Amino acid sequence: MIKPSFELKGVKEALEQFDSKKVKAAIRSTLDRSATQGKQEIVKAVSDNYNIKPKDVRDVTEVQRTTQTALETKIRIARKKLSLAYFRARQTATGVVAHVRKSGASVYPSAFIIRKFGGKVFRRKTEKRFPIKHMAGPAVTEIVKLDNIMDKVQKRINESMQKLFPEEIKKRVFKR
After folding, report:
1. Is the peptide bond before 131 cis (omega within 30 degrees of 0)?
2. What is this structure's pTM?
């Protein structure tokens, strides 16, 4: 698990000048909004490099927002592997061809697609008819770790936090 930390500039000055409740509300709002932008960056980076729909990445990614007591947000990505059916898998004479990356296709010899089970890809474990094994592609967490997407996400979150905090302070402190 990657635990990045960020430093928000101007918090001490804001706490000295303004009401602490309003400043904490501004910090919470800043953290929540920047975490949402981090999630958007993950979705964009994964769907740009891999042949997966942004909705499918969004479904396995969630933002855990701040609370009154804990000033921290978390971006959680489910660890479950995605079926090869998500990656434009199609049946050929030699097996199944799936386009995991946008740059090319992977061939899975002697694999087959069963439409009855949602178009998922299977392969036989032995020469006999049964047992069969479900074939899965990479998990979104693996994709994020392999392609150094977290560096881009951390940069985007840091930039958005520095931009959003003064706006949130103005909105909370100077509102009527």
Report:
1. yes
2. 0.84
